[in-house]
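pasting for ref
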Amino acid sequence: MIQESFTELKDSTTITDCEFPVLNISGFSVSINKTNILKDIDLQVPKNQITCIIGPSGSGKSTLIRSINRINDDVVGFKKQGDIHFQNNSIFKKNVDVANLRKDIGMVFQKPCVFPKSISENVLFGIQHSKKQSKQEKSVIVEKYLRASALWEEVSQRLDEKGSSLSIGQQQRLCIARTLAMEPQVILLDEPTSSLDPLSSRAIEKMMLELKKEYTIVFVTHNIQQAKRIADRIVFMCEGIIIEQGSADEIFTKAKHPKTRGYLVDEYCDC
């Protein structure tokens, strides 16, 4: 059984449903230009679950998930301590192929990043250089992942149109389809519904609940109600520290830390 270490501001829970987590983050700290962003993060992410990271703006949520597939490597002044293991291997080893890591751990950002290409070409963009595919193979891939992202029925008759012709909500689902086409094992989502209307947000939530059958999902959200609807596990962060973490039921019904309880009621944390 895996036990997580804790400090005064970090509550500890045991992951009973996952002896071998897909991601294991231990003693992980980040500073950017000598400003401490993350402080001694310990976190295990179970397979085929939605782990929702919640907390106020500036709490380090985005920095944490952007470290998981090493996007922060390109940030000037980035320094880290501790480690992140993906399938029991450190992602920071010198021989790690970062491009392959980002294929295995896909990322969807807050604002949809649609390329100036057709809908089909957007889906295929990440895999176009990995191997040659016939026209038929490409068609199968496009349909498969547009269906997985709950977009196929809306765009099946307009695949040659520009991706930018879609609504913002559809564009975000197109970005998810492009990520899925890379066949990742983990999907990181950094507040993917924050700029979407309620209908589009619910469509993505419904999709996430289906996708967790095949993927491990880490979902950053500022929306507590959204976390209640989709999360299997909750991680509450404030000022770069994990205050408390556990199953969604544990956190939402009997959170132990007063800061957690306060945030869940008022969406405010006086850290």
